[in-house]
């Protein structure tokens, strides 16, 4: 019997009872996939890991807090024996066999009636690899197949989905690796890509040759004329039946005018969806080694656009209130107005010694960090010839990251 190959099958488990016996790490690995398949998951175990407990708390699985009883399998379609006690797994196997329920064995594949393949998904295709009891080899083969599908090496290309509409895709701070999987997929599925200056350029090189690339930097100048033209282009192309990706740096809704595009699409009856991106005020400091919060140092971080100077009639920022905040300030589009902003913060009561880090071209090959203080920011920006794009981080988190320059920062919280 052992010599026969397995018979592969894709189980459709939605709303069907699946029993997992055991609440340890094997169970923890299997349960989320069962939930994703829509199964009605019952975990039978005297104890479960905190992760499983979390799923119980959120109502995604039912936990029977006790040992296994044969009758647990009465209504089951499928079961997984995942305890670390072989004799319990054996009992589960036997009870399953009696009830003609397929049963996976975590401890002994030869005693199982079903095997869990190494699985991966790409573009609507599930890859399932069943090795001959060599799980690591199966996982490696799975990884290779999925990777090659992603890269287009494996001819997984299919008729491009022709559902027209607009997808707003956030490309992340600049490093092409920092786009999301969903973002990259939307990009590769597009007929038209409307890209900004700050969108990760390298990713555009991977686009299939027949994709129309609209470079926003080449559209008419002036902030509102340009935005109107973008709205017109994305709506027109979508109405003509194309899949349009509006591709921006960071996240489209963080100083990205993304919602104006959502409104324009809605008004024209064009379906529009959003793929969020890693936004630069958080990710650029992170990659530069600066946390925007730190326990006992900053309990808030505030992201502010500096494109208008303090006191400008159109400014919506109350700088005197900002100055009184104790947490981290992250200033964007602020290189030009930084001297006036520093002045406003000092006038509002922030200490002249407040640490400042200016991260230029974050996550990109030319990334550099200029350290300064509120009192010396204007001089340092000038001396270091800082040019946009840059993120300016103000507050003690900068000192936490750079004690060699600013000294150690005392924490207000003790213990853990
Ligand atoms: N939507 C973008 C922000 C657009 S506003 C996002 O979510 O990140 C443009 C400003 O973002 C720039 O002036 C700069 O302050 C900041 N910025 C974006 N990418 C950056 C990068 N790679 N390095 C430093 N600053 C960056």
Automatic annotation (TrEMBL):
<feature type="active site" description="Proton donor">
    <location>
        <position position="218"/>
    </location>
</feature>
<dbReference type="Pfam" id="PF00590">
    <property type="entry name" value="TP_methylase"/>
</dbReference>
<dbReference type="GO" id="GO:0043115">
    <property type="term" value="F:precorrin-2 dehydrogenase activity"/>
</dbReference>
<feature type="active site" description="Proton acceptor">
    <location>
        <position position="196"/>
    </location>
</feature>
<dbReference type="InterPro" id="IPR000878">
    <property type="entry name" value="4pyrrol_Mease"/>
</dbReference>
<protein>
    <submittedName>
        <fullName>Uroporphyrinogen-III C-methyltransferase</fullName>
        <ecNumber>2.1.1.107</ecNumber>
    </submittedName>
</protein>
<dbReference type="Pfam" id="PF13241">
    <property type="entry name" value="NAD_binding_7"/>
</dbReference>
<feature type="domain" description="Tetrapyrrole methylase">
    <location>
        <begin position="166"/>
        <end position="377"/>
    </location>
</feature>
<keyword id="KW-0456">Lyase</keyword>
<dbReference type="InterPro" id="IPR012409">
    <property type="entry name" value="Sirohaem_synth"/>
</dbReference>
<dbReference type="GO" id="GO:0051287">
    <property type="term" value="F:NAD binding"/>
</dbReference>
<dbReference type="GO" id="GO:0009236">
    <property type="term" value="P:cobalamin biosynthetic process"/>
</dbReference>
<keyword id="KW-0520">NAD</keyword>
<dbReference type="GO" id="GO:0019354">
    <property type="term" value="P:siroheme biosynthetic process"/>
</dbReference>
<keyword id="KW-0627">Porphyrin biosynthesis</keyword>
<keyword id="KW-0489">Methyltransferase</keyword>
<dbReference type="InterPro" id="IPR014776">
    <property type="entry name" value="4pyrrole_Mease_sub2"/>
</dbReference>
<dbReference type="InterPro" id="IPR050161">
    <property type="entry name" value="Siro_Cobalamin_biosynth"/>
</dbReference>
<dbReference type="InterPro" id="IPR035996">
    <property type="entry name" value="4pyrrol_Methylase_sf"/>
</dbReference>
<dbReference type="InterPro" id="IPR036291">
    <property type="entry name" value="NAD(P)-bd_dom_sf"/>
</dbReference>
<dbReference type="InterPro" id="IPR006366">
    <property type="entry name" value="CobA/CysG_C"/>
</dbReference>
<keyword id="KW-0808">Transferase</keyword>
<keyword id="KW-0169">Cobalamin biosynthesis</keyword>
<dbReference type="GO" id="GO:0051266">
    <property type="term" value="F:sirohydrochlorin ferrochelatase activity"/>
</dbReference>
<dbReference type="InterPro" id="IPR014777">
    <property type="entry name" value="4pyrrole_Mease_sub1"/>
</dbReference>
<keyword id="KW-0560">Oxidoreductase</keyword>
<keyword id="KW-0511">Multifunctional enzyme</keyword>
<dbReference type="InterPro" id="IPR006367">
    <property type="entry name" value="Sirohaem_synthase_N"/>
</dbReference>
<keyword id="KW-0949">S-adenosyl-L-methionine</keyword>
<dbReference type="GO" id="GO:0004851">
    <property type="term" value="F:uroporphyrin-III C-methyltransferase activity"/>
</dbReference>
<comment type="pathway">
    <text>Porphyrin-containing compound metabolism; siroheme biosynthesis; sirohydrochlorin from precorrin-2: step 1/1.</text>
</comment>
<dbReference type="GO" id="GO:0032259">
    <property type="term" value="P:methylation"/>
</dbReference>
């Amino acid at each position: 019997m052992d010599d026969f190959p397995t018979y592969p099958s894709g189980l459709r488990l939605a709303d069907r009872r699946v029993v997992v016996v055991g609440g340890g790490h094997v169970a923890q690995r299997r349960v989320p996939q069962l939930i994703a398949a829509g199964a009605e998951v019952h975990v039978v175990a005297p104890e479960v890991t905190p992760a499983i407990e979390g799923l119980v708390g959120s109502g995604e699985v039912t936990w029977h807090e006790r040992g296994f009883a044969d009758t647990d399998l009465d209504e089951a379609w499928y079961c997984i024996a995942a305890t670390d006690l072989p004799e319990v797994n054996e009992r589960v196997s036997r009870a399953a066999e009696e009830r003609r329920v397929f049963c996976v064995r975590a401890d002994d594949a030869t005693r199982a009636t079903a095997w869990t393949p190494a699985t991966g998904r790409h573009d609507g295709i599930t890859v399932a690899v069943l090795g001959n009891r060599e799980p690591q080899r199966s996982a490696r083969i799975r990884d290779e197949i999925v990777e090659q599908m992603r890269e287009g090496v494996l001819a997984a290309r299919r008729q491009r989905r022709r559902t027209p509409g607009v997808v707003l895709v956030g490309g992340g701070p600049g490093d092409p690796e920092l786009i999301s999987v969903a973002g990259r997929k939307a990009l590769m599925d597009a007929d038209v890509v409307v890209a900004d200056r700050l969108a990760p350029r390298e990713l555009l090189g991977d686009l299939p040759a027949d994709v129309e690339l609209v470079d926003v930097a080449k559209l008419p100048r002036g902030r509102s004329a340009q935005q109107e033209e973008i709205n017109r282009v994305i709506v027109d192309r979508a109405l003509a039946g194309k899949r349009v990706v509006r591709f921006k740096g960071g996240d489209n809704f963080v100083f990205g005018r993304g919602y104006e595009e959502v409104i324009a699409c809605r008004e024209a009856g064009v379906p529009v969806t959003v793929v969020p991106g890693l936004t630069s005020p958080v990710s650029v400091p992170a990659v530069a080694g600066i946390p925007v919060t730190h326990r006992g140092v900053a309990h808030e971080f505030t992201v502010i656009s500096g494109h208008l100077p303090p006191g400008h009639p159109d400014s919506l920022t109350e700088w005197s209130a900002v100055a009184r905040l104790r947490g981290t300030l992250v200033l964007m589009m602020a290189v030009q107005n930084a001297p006036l902003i520093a002045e406003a913060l000092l006038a509002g009561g922030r200490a002249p010694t407040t640490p400042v880090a200016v991260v230029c071209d974050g996550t990109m090959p030319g990334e550099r960090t200029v350290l300064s203080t509120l009192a010396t920011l204007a001089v340092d920006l000038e001396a270091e010839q800082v040019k946009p794009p840059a993120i300016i981080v103000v507050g003690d988190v900068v000192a936490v990251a750079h004690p060699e320059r600013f000294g150690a920062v005392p924490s207000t919280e003790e213990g853990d």
